[in-house]
Specification:
By secondary structure, this protein is an alpha/beta fold. Helix content is about 35%, strand content about 30%. It is built from six helices and eleven strands.
Length: about 220
């Protein structure tokens, strides 16, 4: 198990390694496997990239992303302009059913509401607006309500776990209640935890996931 100082140093090295992040403006603290990121960056995409890079580091159990997005003057836009840009981007993406997602913007923060038939449509909607100029944050309130019967969801997820090189299926437990899936157990890294959730979402019929998996390096 890494000590806090070693984990902090590894995260700092990973942030420096990530080409889309300027680590000079980001502070890192670590305590019992929980890493807190602070400071400021000029875009939401860089804040997101810093969080993803941190989660890749072995020994990270959780991440508190307290980085502020300080937009340069050239990137600032009115909420109305951002809302229009979100609508145009969502409607232009053929993977998202037209008119299914409604963006609400307040002080540059975008909240996405609506329904998606598949989890990938929900994540695609978020990815579509994250990189838009003027956006400082995104909250997804998109529900997933696929029309597929939830029969044998548990078996399909177990099979997906067994196929994955990134998941130790012996360490993850699966419970299903209609379309809801509850994941528990412990894994070796945060990236493995996310891989398990991503694989579970890919099963037809899943409408909700409660991820109780803990990270135990």
């Amino acid at each position: 198990m890494k000590c806090d100082a070693e984990l902090k140093q590894d995260v700092e090295y990973e942030l420096k390694w990530e080409p889309s992040v300027n680590e000079a403006h980001i502070g890192v603290t670590a305590k019992s496997g929980v890493v807190t990121l602070s400071g400021h960056v000029p875009s939401l995409s860089e804040k997101t990239a810093a969080e993803k890079a941190t989660k890749r580091v072995y020994g990270v159990k959780a991440v508190a992303n307290e980085i502020d997005v300080h937009l340069p003057v050239s990137a600032k836009r009115t909420d109305e302009d951002i809302a229009q840009a979100c609508l145009m981007a969502l409607n232009a993406n053929h993977q998202i059913p037209r008119g299914s997602i409604k963006p609400i913007v307040s002080s540059g923060w975008v909240t996405l509401e609506g329904k998606a038939g598949w989890y990938y449509q929900r994540t695609t909607a978020v990815d579509t607006v994250v990189h838009l100029t003027g956006v400082v944050g995104v909250t997804s309130q998109i529900s997933v309500s696929g029309g597929v019967s939830p029969n044998d969801i548990q078996g399909k997820i177990k099979s997906a776990f067994h196929r994955s090189a990134d998941i130790d299926s012996r360490r993850v437990n699966i419970e299903t209640h209609d379309g809801k899936v509850i994941l528990s157990g412990n894994v070796r890294s945060w990236s493995e935890r996310e891989a398990a959730e991503h694989a579970a979402w890919a099963a037809p019929g899943v409408s909700e996931i409660e991820n109780k998996i803990t990270v135990t390096p």
